[in-house]
């Protein structure tokens, strides 16, 4: 049962050019570009079944569900209050008939004694934006909600293992990470994964990539592919046409 009492201080915001309306805590981790970029990279099709791991208030999963008609989505979040808020956001956007929320730890999902809504080998798509600041290299935020969102209690390999349990053979995991963590991501995607695709995300022309979007398919053997980069802004700081299509219009990245 989800906690029905929302956080005490909320703001009412919109992303995707106003297409997606979100209630979110006024303090702590907030919806941002990473969630929308992640959603754009998910190669989902109508009628598929998807899960968003570490969904928070549901930004990424709801953006995918809004883009793909007939897609069913489970928003998975360990914090019961945020899971309840994610469910409320699905209602506010008219997506509650095919979007649900579950308060669960990723270590429990896809297991025989885990949540019934998250059975093994049943999902076509899994997406996740795991906490990815290295506590050995970054100072912890004094805000407990931001600290929980950014400092991982579980290693990335645990998130990937949870996705592996949930996905059907050939199903796709999509995640977003820091660009300097790409080697670690590829190391965590062991021999049970293949058809790995990497999309570098650059803040502006000539700048090093800040993020990478990574897709991998369960049980495939196709070699890794480095796909064309997404550049978010031009040299003057104006949003690029491609970034505007993703961040404001909700367009998908090429699959």
TrEMBL record:
Enumerate the Gene Ontology biological process terms.
methylation
- Keywords annotated in UniProt: Methyltransferase, S-adenosyl-L-methionine, Transferase
Residues forming the Methyltransferase small domain are 37-137
Name the record gives this protein: Methyltransferase
Molecular function GO terms recorded: N-methyltransferase activity; nucleic acid binding; S-adenosylmethionine-dependent methyltransferase activity
> Pfam families in the record, alphabetically?
MTS
Q: Which CDD domains match?
A: AdoMet_MTases
Name the InterPro entries on file: DNA_methylase_N6_adenine_CS, SAM-dependent_MTases_sf, Small_mtfrase_dom, tRNA_Adenine-N(6)_MTase
